[in-house]
Amino acid sequence: DGFAAEKLFNQGFSYTYDDVIFLPHYIDFPTDSVQLATRLTRNISLSIPCVSSPMDTVTETYMASAMAALGGIGIIHSNCPASQQAAMVHAAKARRVPILSNLVFKSPSDRIDSDDDFASSPFILVTESGTSKSKLLGYVSYADWTSQGNKEVKIYDYMVNSGASVPWNYDLGQLDAFLEENKKDFVPLLKDGEVVDVATKSEVERIKSYPKLGVGSVAADGSWLVGASIGTREHDKERLKLLVQAGINVVVLDSSQGNSSYQIDMIKYVKRTYPELDVIGGNVVTMAQAQNLIQAGVDGLRIGMGSGSICTTQEVCAVGRGQATAVYKVSLVASHSGVPVIADGGISNSGHIVKALVLGASTVMMGSFLAGSTEAPGAFETKNGQRVKKYRGMGSLEAMIKGSDARYLGDTATLKIAQGVVGAVADKGSVLKFIPYTMQAVKQGFQDLGASSIKSAHDLLSSKVLRLEVRTGAAQVEGGIHGLVSYEKRSF
Ligand code: XMP
Questions:
Q1: What is the ipTM of this complex?
Q2: Dihedral of the CA atoms 373, 374, 376, 377 (nearest 10)?
Q3: How far is the CA of 395 from the centre of ligand 1 (A)?
Q4: What is the value of pTM for the model shown?
Q5: How far is residue 72 from each of residues 86, 393, 399, measured CA to CA in Å?
Q6: Measured in angstroms, how far is the CA atom of residue 434 from the centroid of ligand 1?
């Protein structure tokens, strides 16, 4: 019944996730026993197969720490000066609970002239020199400042003296217990004498209300696993140096067409200069492209060209491949060399994740799926009565003007041609809430297929036990929501 993947993907068609459907197999285990633990690269393991895209509307400090807390990983984008990217990596690693406060520092001899100083934070931290790196002396809350009649006086006249702090690596339970026992509304987190964040009671309560966090992605030194992207130009070597100093665990070489002499040279440079650092190459969609990068020494491969929700590469350049075919084909080559693959782009529901993983990927990389979350960069806006966040392609003119042109131009071309668009995505709440629900849905898909792990799904596919078919246009309509006048779509 149905087709083996080998037959289905060798007929000259480029299929995407929605084109194909798996036939159910046999269930002999409960949903909760499905294991989604996986590998990002040759040497990095994750407890869930989720990676956030290196895009400036997706992954900065907050997203990277949240993805690691969930057991996945975030790749911090490079569309900013190298020092800023390195600072984001440093900050993401310097916390164990995904909170992010706006910190404002003053010294005791400063004055607070206007309530502008409280615009981004309800309190100001007072340190010896007025920077995060000097000794913590206390704080001034907005209430302290407003009740202070004479605004001319210096902070030391009315600040609350309190050096109370906790170590940066306190987990949620420890933070909660500290705030509870000490009857505090907030507490600064310290790493090597520097204030790296502040845990507030309300943030701790918010995170406690989500599904319990599983096994986070922790590096050998106890910090979160964090990745970062770079380009393949000469000056990216300097960027990489700063990122390595900031402690990245993996680097992603960010090119829309990765099979190039520039990327191969860079892979060899990274492996030679930083033998301990895993390098992910890409993007690729064919077996030949993958083979070249594997030979050059990549530890992981990123698959996808033009499949992203904001991509126009296939239309602009006439190059790319349907994502289901690309994942299947590249995974065949990569699995022979023990290189895990990342299915990048085109994920808009849990079924797409199931398809990507079963077809051979070890992880999925997501942009739009995560861009409307609390942890994505930027503020929510209201458009047509709906709360949305901006999401833009890194090949959009807007992003390229800010500096991301290297990914799309690759060499030294000077005229900019857009390969992406700018848009907005709906508010989805916190990734800490919707990713656990999404993973539960993925587990159900695996259970229907009789696959108890990603590895067993790959084995069932290659041994032709799992069967697929192509869906006609009408079958796709039937498989989606249809025939209702209106509906509310909610998975959790
Ligand atoms: P999703 O579908 O998750 O896709 O939103 C995210 C992935 O899309 C790629 N990307 C682009 N591709 N033009 C492109 O052709 C662009 O402007 C662009 N920006 C991002 C990237 O691989 C990302 O992970």
A1: 0.98
A2: 140
A3: 8
A4: 0.93
A5: 20, 22, 26
A6: 21
